[in-house]
Automatic annotation (TrEMBL):
Pfam families: Aminotran_4. GO terms for biological process: L-leucine biosynthetic process; L-valine biosynthetic process. PROSITE patterns: AA_TRANSFER_CLASS_4. Belongs to the class-IV pyridoxal-phosphate-dependent aminotransferase family. Its EC number is 2.6.1.42. It comes from the Eukaryota. The keyword Amino-acid biosynthesis applies. GO terms for cellular component: mitochondrion. It comes from Physocladia obscura. It catalyses: L-leucine + 2-oxoglutarate = 4-methyl-2-oxopentanoate + L-glutamate; L-isoleucine + 2-oxoglutarate = (S)-3-methyl-2-oxopentanoate + L-glutamate; L-valine + 2-oxoglutarate = 3-methyl-2-oxobutanoate + L-glutamate. Gene3D superfamilies: 3.30.470.10, D-amino Acid Aminotransferase, subunit A, domain 2. This is Branched-chain-amino-acid aminotransferase. InterPro entries: Aminotrans_IV, Aminotrans_IV_CS, Aminotransferase-like, B_amino_transII, BCAT-like_C, BCAT-like_N, BCAT_family.
Length: 392
């Protein structure tokens, strides 16, 4: 079942209302810079809490349907001023990205596959009828922001500067329609490793009475609205001691994602072969950069089968009973991988294997290997085209 949506470009959609040819696109070289007079104190690495402290500056790019994109502005991090009638507040027209900047041993700033984040933001904008933009130019403006706030990029391995590009509809109107005004802004915050003291495997609650995404919905776009409705389900399972929801979908209880991460299983398939499995990009799965990287690495290694296909809870339980299930983990930029140790499903807790050769271990061997390899690439220790050095 593959849901390939013939997505019209926004230019096609809007071609009747405006001639986009005259509209300006983002031009990084036109970026204006207004430096903050106040240099904030950067917390010590050990005191970093995800998403709480923001660097001195932000990037702000405004769009309107008459002129297109204005010159990008780098300015002090601060509040936005928007009309209370702005579309974003009423109909949730917002999408975002999550990416990181890393400092390598020689002090260079590195990004990990940033083109994928720009492509995904572009597609999320298309889905919300937000304006399209030049992806390379937006990335160049973000790189300028990183160079200006370079001191905020921690140099210790495992630490990084989290980058949050965000697009919103800002038209002053309660009408439900494509917005005549929009904004892309980018804020950054220093973050520590997801696992400060080694891996901590998580316990999941398989959830089917709430649904994260559905065919024809927005599950494959990085949209704030997808997150808003996941907060209450997460709180509910937390009351029963589970860290996250394992989102199921459909009459067969298909596994889709875990919390806000993609999902992987490593098992011995019915033909007796070791196989890495993840659900396919059928429209309900967010196309993660980490997901794609893991699939790519595994296919390059060529040591086991790699397949994108639907997996159901009954299949997982059968594999467990037959001792064919080897490892399960979530994958996303924040943690790279998140090992899974338990799944609560229909009143029963199923223990998921971690590393059978080490009873104290909190992650399977393959899970760890993906984490080590990707982190090695991100910090420039393993030379790879995915790691892009930001030029001064
Ligand atoms: C962001 C996100 C992911 C992970 O994507 P990465 O690009 O690997 O960070 C997975 N699932 C959901 C729902 C997400 O929003």
């Amino acid at each position: 079942m593959l849901f390939l949506r013939p997505l019209m470009t926004n230019r096609q959609l809007f071609s009747t209302v405006s001639t986009t040819a005259t509209l300006k696109d983002i031009v990084a070289a036109a970026t204006t810079v207004s430096l903050s007079s106040h240099r904030k104190q950067i917390p010590a690495n050990k005191d970093l809490v995800f998403g709480k402290t923001f660097a001195d500056h932000m990037l702000d790019v405004n769009w309107d349907s008459k002129n297109g994109w204005a010159a990008p502005e780098i300015k002090p991090y601060g509040n936005l001023s928007l009309a209370p009638s702005a579309t974003v507040f009423h109909y949730g027209v917002e999408c975002f990205e999550g990416m990181k900047a890393y400092k390598d041993k020689s002090g260079s700033i590195r990004l990990f596959r940033p083109d994928m984040n720009m492509n995904r933001l572009f597609r999320s904008c298309q889905r919300l009828a937000l304006p399209e933009f030049n992806k390379d130019e937006l990335l160049k403006s973000i790189e300028q922001l990183l160079l200006i706030d370079e001191r905020w990029i921690p140099s210790e391995r495992g630490y990084s500067l989290y980058i949050r590009p965000t697009a919103i509809a800002t038209q002053e109107s309660l009408g439900v329609g494509s917005s005549s005004n929009a904004k892309i802004f980018v804020i950054t915050c220093p973050v520590g490793p997801y696992y400060k003291t080694g891996f901590a495997a998580v316990s999941l609650s398989a959830t089917s009475h709430y649904v994260r995404a559905w065919p024809g919905g927005t599950g494959d776009s990085k949209i704030g609205g997808n997150y808003a409705c996941g907060i209450r389900p997460q709180l509910e399972v937390a009351q029963h001691g589970y860290a996250q929801n394992l989102w199921l979908f459909g009459p067969n209880d298909n596994l889709t994602e875990v919390g806000t991460m993609n999902l992987f299983l490593f098992w011995i398939n019915k033909a007796g072969q070791r196989e890495l499995v993840t659900p396919p990009l059928d429209g309900t799965i967010l196309p993660g950069v980490t997901r794609d990287s893991i699939l790519n690495l595994a296919r390059t290694w060529g040591e086991f089968e790699v397949i994108e296909r639907p997996v159901t809870m009954p299949e997982v339980i059968e594999a467990l009973k037959e001792k064919r299930l080897l490892e399960m983990f979530g994958a996303g930029t924040a943690a790279i991988v998140s090992p899974i140790k338990n799944i609560g499903y229909k009143g029963t807790d199923y223990a998921i294997p971690l590393d059978p050769s080490d009873p104290t271990s909190q992650a399977g061997k393959l899970t760890k290997r993906f984490a080590d390899t990707i982190m090695g690439i991100q910090y420039g220790e393993i030379p790879h085209e995915w790691s892009v050095v930001v030029k001064q």
